[in-house]
Amino acid sequence: MSVEFKDLHLDEIKTRDGGFLPSEYEEEIEPLMAELDNYDGSRIYGALEMIVCGICPECAGNSCMDGDYENGEDSCNGGTYDCDQGEMRDAPWLELYKYTNFQIALKARMEYTGDDPNEFWNNYQLKEVS
Asked: How is residue 67 annotated by DSSP?
């Protein structure tokens, strides 16, 4: 993946501690990494930033532009996660990107150059304990 953590512009968001250790976010970060990988190199401007913040990159947070809003349907179903009124639905990281510890773990995971995510999380947990 060619995107770096700084490209997500999360440092501009006021962060707080989520009450979890950075190593406890594996189940949320791995689906996010897969989604970022899907849109890496996309021609959609700001797609990666939108994904991290839970905004649908296919409709750029405005699913009404497909013309179905008048019929009571306000979703675009464009990505891996369904879109509801411009927001990604059921993505596990949606509320977590605001937390400092989540961002610490995400940054470490994005900087990991190996191929095995399990190896990363095992080593990350060991490093945190020691």
From this structure: S
Instruction: Note whether 49 and 101 are same-domain residues.
Output: yes
Q: CA-to-CA distance for 97 and 53, rounded, in angstroms?
A: 7
Q: What is the pTM of this model?
A: 0.79
Enter the tokens of residue 66. Answer: 């497909």
Helix (H) / strand (E) element for 35: namely helix 26-39
Residue among 23, 21, 20, 19 nearest 122 (CA): 23
Same domain, 34 and 19: yes
Query: Using CA atoms, how far apart are residues 1 and 38, in angstroms rounded to an integer?
Result: 9
By residue range, what is the domain housing residue 64? 58-90
Task: Measure the CA–CA gap between 120 and 94, rounded to whole angstroms.
Answer: 22
| 43-73 pLDDT per residue, tens | 888 889 989 988 888 877 675 555 555 555 5
Backbone angles phi, psi at 16, to 5 degrees: -145, 165
